[in-house]
Specification:
Length: about 350
């Protein structure tokens, strides 16, 4: 396998978790790495979170591997100031990445690391399918001295395509989809529910579909997470619920995430942020980055064996007792990397 991969180290712990990931990937294939600055680092260098040339490089790659963006250095309430997250939103939009998949499967070795009781999370294996390019994040924004507004807008076509992704995913799992909305209040949610049901009846009637209001979904994720199979929802709700679901695993530092779209390259990144408070200390958990690389191998590069080998190596390292500080242990980034390499 030979592939050209754009790498975006980003900010905070990003460079520290990307470097060992590339070393691991080189055990599994022949890669050409194309590094670019992105996020806050790009703001410092170029005044914007993502330059046009970086977007073009990503469009021409086989896949894009992103570590982390953001940090307090670039936090601001000035609507005209650049923010690292603008790079991420722009990259998703520019690559047509409309579906973000967040698998949540707590490993038995980490059951006791979860803030939820073992009996509550046992058997949990869910997938959050989040719409990425519509909704309030991309709607028109206004700001005056005494008021502000953000427009939440969805087209029928945007809802149809994300619904199809969720139903297709469910067919390869336990055949159940929970569509999360706020149809008792929001017009966009009423449209969402109507379109999801039509796609279900016309194309996926073999899949079980249920509707869950977003506030109830937040409660059920804590109360009975094992009942969920596939959750499909819009951009803002998906952002919040997927981070909540991440804690079921014991640490947000354990979750990978692919963002997929049409014919272009996918974007693969860990769910966690840039953790500037531990940047440079060697304490960052690289496992979500490793697992994101495994998803890249599977979804973008067609290497099922390589993906399975890397995921198995992470599982076995944890079974052997590997624990980084976020998991209640003391293993450094390098020690975690060495543990995974031993099992690869």
């Amino acid at each position: 396998m030979s592939a050209r991969v754009v790498t975006l180290a980003g900010d905070g712990i990003g460079p520290e978790i990307l470097e060992p990931t590339l070393a691991i990937l080189e055990r599994l294939g022949d890669f050409t790495w194309e590094p670019h600055v992105f996020g806050g680092a790009s703001i410092d260098a170029h005044g914007v979170a993502m330059t046009d040339s970086v977007l073009e490089a990503c469009r021409g790659a086989d896949a894009v591997l992103l570590a982390a963006v953001g940090g307090p250095k670039w936090d601001t309430t000035d609507p005209g100031a650049p923010r690292p997250e603008q790079g991420l939103l722009g990259l998703r939009k520019g690559l047509g990445l409309f579906a973000n998949l967040r698998p949540v499967r707590p490993l038995p070795a980490l059951y006791d690391s979860s803030p939820l009781r073992r009996e509550r999370i046992e058997g949990t294996d869910l997938l959050v399918v989040r719409e990425l390019t519509g909704g309030i994040y991309f709607g028109e924004k206004t700001r005056t001295a005494d008021r502000a507004s953000d427009l939440c807008e969805y087209t029928v076509a945007e809802v149809e395509r994300i619904a199809r992704v969720a139903f297709e995913a469910a067919r390869g799992r336990r055949n159940r989809v929970a569509s999360v909305d706020k149809a008792n209040v929001l017009e966009t949610s009423r449209q969402w529910r109507e379109v999801v049901h039509r796609v279900h009846v016309e194309e996926f009637s073999d899949v079980e579909l249920s509707d869950v209001l977003v506030d109830n979904a937040a409660m059920q994720l804590v109360g009975r997470p094992a009942e969920f199979d596939v959750i499909v929802t819009e951009n803002l709700f998906g952002d919040i619920l997927s981070d909540e679901a991440a804690m079921i695993t014991g640490s947000i530092g354990m979750l990978p995430s692919p963002s997929l779209g049409g014919a272009g390259p996918g974007l693969f990144e860990p769910v966690h942020g840039s953790a500037p408070d531990i940047a440079g200390t060697g304490a960052a958990n690289p496992l979500a980055m490793f697992l994101s690389a495994a998803l890249m191998l599977r979804h973008a590069l067609g290497s099922q064996d390589g993906a399975a080998a890397l995921e198995s190596a992470v599982d076995r390292a944890l079974d052997d007792g590997l624990r980084t500080p976020d998991l209640g242990g003391t293993a450094s980034t390098q020690e975690a990397t060495d543990a995974v390499l031993r099992h690869l």
